[in-house]
Prior knowledge:
Elements: H1 2-10, H2 20-29, E1 31-35, E2 40-42, E3 50-56, E4 58-65, E5 68-76, E6 80-81, H3 83-88, E7 95-98, E8 102-108, H4 109-118, H5 120-150
Antiparallel strand pairs: 1-8, 2-7, 3-6, 3-8, 4-5, 4-7
Helix pairs in contact: 4-5
Amino acid sequence: MEETRIAALQRMPIFGAIRADILASLLATSRVVRVPRDDYFFREGDRAESMFVLEQGQVAIVRHWEGKPYVLGHLHEGDCFGEMAVLDLFPRSASILALEDCAAIELSTASLLELAETDLEQFALVQMNIGRELSRRLRDAGERLFRAQVGAPPPERAPAFWT
């Protein structure tokens, strides 16, 4: 079972090029968080000391303005969220709402620090993967903002988290 799970994790962008032994170690120090449909993994403004990798289900990225929720996008199995927290340690910038029963691996900043102390090269790869994901999302957000400013429709093929 663990080999199948590790193989699935290695196909996720956040764990690209990460060795199986490192993933097994991360899994051993991480917990699986199960969130039922219509409940939150976390809310905007919450203290942040971890990120999540969605193993099962679909979530919505939600921000609130003047008491109203606005869905910014959706994430699916294999996507990560809360990754900014492991880099900047600021409070959560959005809420993550489970649209169906979900399960996600919670990676704490402490477990990533432990990885840095035991295998700096693999830690660097995880950090690069997080950076690539953030860069992709920033590019997509920039494109979205640009199109809104010029009055253009969104691209025909929107990124996964827009849908």
